[in-house]
From TrEMBL:
Coiled coil: none annotated. Keywords: Acyltransferase, Membrane, Transferase, Transmembrane, Transmembrane helix. InterPro entries: Acyl_transf_3_dom, Glucan_succinyl_AcylTrfase. This is Acyltransferase family protein. One of its GO terms (molecular function) is acyltransferase activity. It comes from Psychrosphaera aquimarina. The chain crosses the membrane at residues 30-51, 71-90, 102-123, 172-191, 198-217, 229-246, 258-280, 328-345, 351-373, 401-418. Residues 23-372 form the Acyltransferase domain.
Amino acid sequence: MKKALPIMALFIPKHNNIPNRRYDLDWLRVIVFGLLIFYHTGMLYVANWGYHIKSQYLSEGLANVMLLLSPWRMAVLWLISGIAIRFVLVKVPLLQFIGLRSIRLLLPLLFAILVIIPPQLYYEMIFNGDLNLSYWQFYKAFFVNDHELFINYQPGIWPHIDVNHLWYLRELWQYSLFLVPLLPLLNSRFIEKLTNKLFSLNAVVAILLVVMPIFIIQLSMESDQHRNALGFICLIYGYLIGWHPVFWQRVTEHYKNLLIISLVLYLSLITFYNLVWLGADENTNKVLLVAGNFLYSLDRVLWVLAVMGLASRYLNKPSKQLSYLSDAVYPYYIVHQTIIIAVGFELSRFSLGIALEGVLVLLISFAACIATFEIIRRVELLRVLFGVRLKHSYSPNIKKAGYFIAAVIIIPFGLEILL
């Protein structure tokens, strides 16, 4: 008789055919997070899209540019996250994976909620005419539950305290936990056969099969709900297909065709957006709206495949710049929106015009992100608080003490998020 496999073995991906490190995914992660600075700067100026504050200069046409990025930017990050989880689980025991991931995600998130994000609410309340206090007066009130100052700003992890743009960190931690009980199924021979079968199908059929769950989710759920569900399903897609050699072979070989098709879909999408979506009401043909949602879903998937293929073709190589930028990703991500909102609000006082104001917001925001990271990377405690790996090696006892302190801090916070 064969010896039964230990139960924990069901949670570990198979070790055969482990691919080499994919530097293209590291580059793509850096690029997509970098595009967030452009995207959130654009949110100051795009008409009809909600944001914390708005410039006095609004553009309806800017939405057409934003729609080039909007459908696929987060889907790419979730796909990369799923691939990364599979790499980690091969090397790290499951409980250690959960512990380390919790510390690396929740500690920076908690610090940011209490220190980095509050200025966003401060400027938003001033912009809305709901605040006439100094920042210090506001910040003291910020930590008072049920303060009447925040009666119109209630949703959050705690009253009026929320993750804002850092919802990706919160969801990534939650999805990592939700993925754990699914691992025996995802690692099973049955799912492996289904995945192999997918890549044996005609490319059009395979793409449609991948699109349909995304389309159904987008069509049947409210905005916040489908954002969460789409993130989780893209993370699972990454876990399942991110190692498959046929996937990388096909997207690399056909990246030009994928780009051409994606551009056609993008042009179709902005046509639908301008001719139908902007004027949609209860009398709009429902079939037309369903078709528009399918177009959006298809655009999302094709652009993900296109940028994956493009990155695989040209970016799958290490460099010193990549090592530096990979460390900079989380700090940039954590601070960038607060900087954009603060700079955008202050510059709006000078009536500079949309072009000059927009360029200055971008330049100052990038400069501030660079300066902030240069400080963070030189201070070990700040590296921890911004999700950057420690620079120096420490004794086992010091590591254990650090993990214990971090656990004491994040366990109540994690339970608050889950419950």
